[in-house]
Design a protein that fits this description.
The chain is an alpha+beta fold. The chain has six helices and 16 strands. The longest helix has 14 residues.
C-alpha cells in the first residue's frame, strides 16, 4: 500500500461544528510528518486541484459529507475516510471524533483496506442537447415538485419501453443508495460490492409497484411524459439539479468513476453495521415471575 504523504481534510461546509475537529485532525497529521491541507468552507470546484495531488481525503460530518467528498474524489481515484459527526453516519468509518487518535495509529500503520463502490451517471437531454451531466453515489430521483400531484414518467430499459409510472417519484439507485431513500420506499437491500442499478417507484398509483434490479451494463431512460402537467424535478444525491420540461429525458447508466472508501473494520462489516442501525440491540429488563402468573 502506498505510503501516505499528503492528506486532505474536508469539514462539512454547512456545519460549523466540524471545523474545530478538522483543525485538530490536521494538527495530529502534521505532527506525524504528513503534508496536510484543510478546507471547511468549500464547493467541489474549489478543491479539485488539491484532491488531485492527495493520497487520501478525510471527510468530517455525516453521510452528506461523505457523498460530497466521494463525488469530488472519484475522478482522481482518491480514497475517502469518514469521521462521523452526523445523525446516522452509515458511510463513515470512524464513529466519533473522540476515537480519532487510536484510528490514526491504525491508519499510519497501513492496517486498512479500500472498499470500491459503484456510481451512476445521469444525463439530462432536451431535444438533442445534453443540458446536464452528474455522477451519483446514492441515487438519481425524478419526482414531483412542490404541488402535491403525481407525475407521469415513461421508462425505457436499453432503449425499449418498459412501463409508464404514475407516482410521486422514481428512484434510480446504486447498491449504496439501496439503503437510503430507496429502502425507505420499500426497495431491497443490495450489498455494496454489487454493481447493479435499482429502480424503485415511490407511491405508484395503479401502475407497476415492484422494485426492479438491473445489471451494471443497463441503461435506464426516463421521459417526462408529454401529456404530464405536473412540475417535475431531478435530484442527484439529494441535490436539486434541474426542473424538467415536458419531453425531457433523463438517461442513467453506470459511471466510469467509482468511489473508494477507507475501511478499518472487517470486510464483512456491512450486514452487522446495517442491522445495528435498523434494529438496535436493546437489552430488555429481566422480568421476575410472580406468584399466580
Amino acid at each position: 500500500m502506498t505510503k501516505l504523504k499528503r492528506i486532505g481534510i474536508l469539514g462539512h461546509p454547512l456545519r460549523p461544528k466540524t471545523a474545530p475537529v478538522a483543525e485538530h485532525i490536521a494538527a495530529t497529521l502534521e505532527g506525524r510528518g504528513i503534508d496536510t491541507w484543510l478546507n471547511t468552507t468549500w464547493n467541489e470546484e474549489d478543491v479539485q486541484h488539491l484532491v488531485e495531488s492527495s493520497d487520501m481525503v478525510i471527510a468530517i460530518g455525516g453521510d452528506g459529507a461523505m457523498l460530497r467528498a466521494a463525488r469530488v474524489c472519484a475522478p482522481y481515484d482518491v480514497p475517502v475516510l469518514g469521521v462521523n459527526m452526523g445523525q446516522l453516519g452509515f458511510l463513515t468509518e470512524i464513529d466519533s471524533p473522540d476515537t480519532w487518535e487510536p484510528h490514526l495509529d491504525v491508519l499510519l500503520g497501513d492496517q486498512y483496506w479500500i472498499e470500491t463502490r459503484m456510481m451512476v451517471r445521469a444525463l439530462v437531454l432536451r431535444g438533442n442537447d445534453v443540458i446536464s451531466s452528474q455522477d451519483a453515489l446514492n441515487d438519481v430521483v425524478i419526482s414531483r415538485g412542490i404541488i402535491t400531484r403525481i407525475v407521469r414518467l415513461e421508462m425505457y430499459i436499453d432503449r425499449d419501453w418498459a412501463t409508464t409510472y404514475n407516482a410521486d417519484a422514481l428512484i434510480i439507485a446504486t447498491p449504496t443508495g439501496s439503503t437510503a431513500y430507496a429502502l425507505a420506499s420499500g426497495g431491497p437491500i443490495l450489498p455494496p460490492e454489487l454493481r447493479n442499478i435499482l429502480i424503485v417507484p415511490v407511491a405508484p398509483h395503479l401502475t407497476m409497484d415492484r422494485p426492479i434490479v438491473l445489471s451494471e451494463g443497463s441503461t435506464v431512460e426516463v421521459l417526462a411524459a408529454p401529456d404530464s402537467h405536473s412540475e417535475i424535478v431531478l435530484t442527484v444525491d439529494g441535490r436539486l439539479i434541474e426542473n424538467l420540461q415536458s419531453g425531457d429525458r433523463v438517461r442513467v447508466q453506470a459511471s466510469e468513476y467509482v468511489s473508494r472508501f477507507v475501511r478499518m473494520r472487517e470486510r464483512n462489516y456491512f450486514y452487522r453495521s446495517l442491522l445495528d442501525r435498523l434494529e438496535p440491540r436493546i437489552t430488555l429488563p429481566s422480568r421476575t415471575r410472580t406468584t399466580g402468573d
